[in-house]
Amino acid sequence: MTQAQADRPQAQADAAGTRVDRTKAQADRTQAEAGRVDGVRILRGERNWWCLGPGGGVARLRAGQLTPDGALRPGAERRLRELGMLTASPPRTYALTVLTSTHCNLGCGYCFQNTSQDPDGGSRPPRIARTRLSSPTITSILDFTERQMAAAGLEKLRILLFGGEPLLNPRGCLELLERAAEHGLASAWMISNATLLTPKLAGRLADLGLGSVQVTFDGDRADHDRIRVRRSEGTGTFDTIVRNIVRASEASPIRWILRVNVSQETYQGVDALIGRLAAALDSARCTLYLAQVGDVGVGYGNDLLHTGELSARFSGWQRRALDLGFTVTRPQAHRPCSTCGYGDGRYGAVVSADGTLASCWETAGKADWEVGTVTGGYLPGTVTRERWVGCEDLYRHGEDARMRAEFHDTVDAALLDYLDETGRL
């Protein structure tokens, strides 16, 4: 799963209509990946062919190792299997996502937890029902997690603190991490808008195992402050977020995942944003990744198409970020998400603040999309089958899956070329 992502983090306007969209998205994805073997990705760079295997790693290929249609020849496939690149290992860590609060202090119009746009045109779009994680629910979540980990034969736990905005319930975040230490907690991260993050809180979270925080920027300052606004008064948040990251970095070893949302409203300012962030933050502690804002049926669409011009822009932004000292998220093979990619919650779970189970971040807290509870377990497959969605299944796009796949392949191949040229691969 690309982390992404973030936030990678937009509610359906109509449950039945969304399920039709989800079915179409799954069919598009199947079509786009037709002919791929074992999740392998073969990318054509300027001078090399690249192979990304689900077992991990990147291999440089010669044209003679591929068939005319770009598939691996038997000898190349055999060698890559010997190296372990083509065989994916099952997850070794249970991936638990917990919404500590379903409420949010921002009013972003594209959020997948909105149920529609603000009818008054302001900064308060209606959202999913408000709930808050409590101590008894933490007990139930950890008991459920222990049972799931035992069934999967896993001993290590990774927690994602999620929302809404998780820091609207800091006590819930701290208590969950503290108590999870007795249940095999190996690492933790958080997706937050960072407007409420104080140095003291950052230090306490880090002491309990929080290693990284993902924060979203909607373009450069002017665009961000028009889009990513406070629900209470509609004011911008850019300077507050940057200041809080700087102060939290001084008080803790937390690393930062900077998600940059790209849309028709933000793409003109992305280059300036990267420079501004490099000047303000310690880029050596930051991973930057670019994500297109998607349409999830709440009245907010993204008109940018996956064209050659856009792929060239993405590649240029990635190169500039690398040259300024940021880490850039590396391309990966096709692998199922630990949380939502297996259809039965075997290796991970998404739990809302009231203990309700969802298949994915995108449906957590949404009525009629529950797949169970932490006290009762997962519902029967006959019920969950219609409610089980994976990463971005609910997103609607203006192009078919093949065009989107070609876009991502072009961007990823260019990134691998540049990492190779600059000795970073």
Describe the structure.
Strands 10-9-8-7-6-5-4-11-12-13-14 form an eleven-stranded mixed beta sheet. The chain has helices at 15-32, 74-82, 135-152, 170-180, 199-207, 221-227, 238-251, 270-280, 308-323, 381-384, 401-421, and strands spanning 41-44, 49-52, 58-61, 93-99, 156-162, 185-191, 210-217, 255-262, 286-292, 327-328, 348-351, 356-358, 372-373, 377-378. The protein has two domains: 40-87, no CATH class; 93-335 and 393-421, TIM Barrel, CATH 3.20.20. The two termini are 20 Å apart. Mean pLDDT is 90; it is low at 1-36. 32% of the residues lie in helices and 16% in strands. It is globular and about 60 Å long. The protein has 425 residues and is an alpha/beta fold.
